[in-house]
Amino acid sequence: MRFTSLVVELIRARPRLVVWLVVLVQAAIWLILPMLLYRSPPGDVATVLAFGREYQVGTWLGPPLAFWLADIAFRAAGNHIFGVYLLAQVCAVVTFWIYYQLARAIVGGQQAVLAVLLSMTVVAFSSPGVEFGPLVLARPLWALLLLHSWQLIGQNRRNAWFAWSIEAGLLLLTTPAALGLLLLLAGFVVATARGRRVLMSLDPLYALLVIAVLVLPYLIWLLRADALAMPPWPAISDLGARALQWGWLLAGLVLAMSAIVLLAILNSGWFARNAGEAPIIYRPPVDPLARQFVYFFALAPALLGSLIAGIFNRDHVVGGAGVALLMSGLVVIVASGDLIHLRRQRLLRTVWAAAVAAPAVAVIVTTLVLPWTGAAEVPTSLPAKAIAQFFGDNFERRTNQRLRAVAGDPQLAGFIAMSAGRPHLLLDATPERTPWLSVAKFSETGGVVVWRASDTSGTPPPDIAQRFPGLVPEVPRVFEWMVNGRQPLLRVGWAIVRPKAQ
């Protein structure tokens, strides 16, 4: 007798409900977990907020849209990091919902659910999704572009041009990798007969006009900043090391989707007993062009993104792993055939749940256990709120003025820049990267300079002392970690640069 679980019946009868349930549960996990365990924002979130606070048209970090949205979310939450975490999870929910719409248009609603479930196990969509920035914002925009591109090419829906142009413009305002992604789309369109027919109208010209209007301010900034130059090509002697870097990046992508590979193997017909009794998820035949579309955009962003990153010695895939692996679940479903047998259902559910929960467990173990096993520093355990409040209050008491700027150690200064007064961040080691503030102007308006202190005297590092001559260090301030464990307490050296008027 064939046994069909409730989960399979829900996939067959209510596919949208299943998608909403699993996506919202995952978003809730990665919204609650950082609020409970993170005492400082992960990754470069503090820097993103510091740059977003200035509302520059462009910076050395790239286009401005992600930085602006981060600052808006932070202010809307009352200068609380919760707003940024919520924005990151909104991006995740939108990404998977649009991804489901794209998969449903290609393989039908039931198998589209399986594509979403598989893609949710990719590591890039778990803890890295909390680190809101250009790489996270690019995911929903890329999903929207793929959806409307398929509507234009495969379904001949001309009304999708306007949305496509808006999304392309916003992607160009989000990540420097947008141009390469758009070139991939253009290459696929030109290489297919149905794609070339889509171009035989005035709609693409109107779309280009909309894109040009959206990106014109950023393009003007690029020209004025002379930032359109290509990065230097590697020397011949470095090609071996760059090829090795490419290999490591590809290996990282494969490792990130290892749960998909494991689930596919466990569901295969090898050594299966009573294979005929397994429930079946059916789909209508897939359009050959849709098959090419899925294969191309599952492989090209990952291969080319890792290759370019390897050539130019980047530490991550161009465009981000979330963009490169977005189609990984759908490509497995398309390759599996019109009938997908769900064998070993209990084992599949267990492995899938473990793959989704494993990053959360890793975060909990890293935060609570790692401090007791060694002296390694957990970046998200720094008491960012206490650091910001202490230095902001001390500057105001000493000078009777609100803290307007902070410099020194970039990580600590970024935390202080998140305080209620939102002081400007000065990267004094590379002041050209923070053009809104210079060392000379910092000396006039006053501020706080911070650094990691190695002793109780609080002597500033030689490079900081050279950039700020006459700096008088205060007694270092000691802060406790979230879990102290075997780590030494965090000792922060600091000094106040008084405003010139005083």
From TrEMBL:
Entry keyword Cell membrane: yes
Residue span, Glycosyltransferase RgtA/B/C/D-like domain: 63-221
Alphabetized Pfam families for the sequence: PMT_2
Domain of life from the UniProt record: Bacteria
Mode of membrane association: Multi-pass membrane protein
Keyword Zinc recorded: no
Signal peptide: none
Keywords: Cell membrane, Glycosyltransferase, Membrane, Transferase, Transmembrane, Transmembrane helix
Main subcellular location of this protein, as a coarse class: membrane
An example Gene Ontology CC term for this record: plasma membrane
One GO process term, biological-process aspect: lipopolysaccharide biosynthetic process
PANTHER family (alphabetical): BLL5595 PROTEIN, MANNOSYLTRANSFERASE YKCB-RELATED
Name listed for the protein in its UniProt record: Glycosyltransferase RgtA/B/C/D-like domain-containing protein
Natural source organism: Bradyrhizobium icense
UniProt lineage: Bacteria, Pseudomonadati, Pseudomonadota, Alphaproteobacteria, Hyphomicrobiales
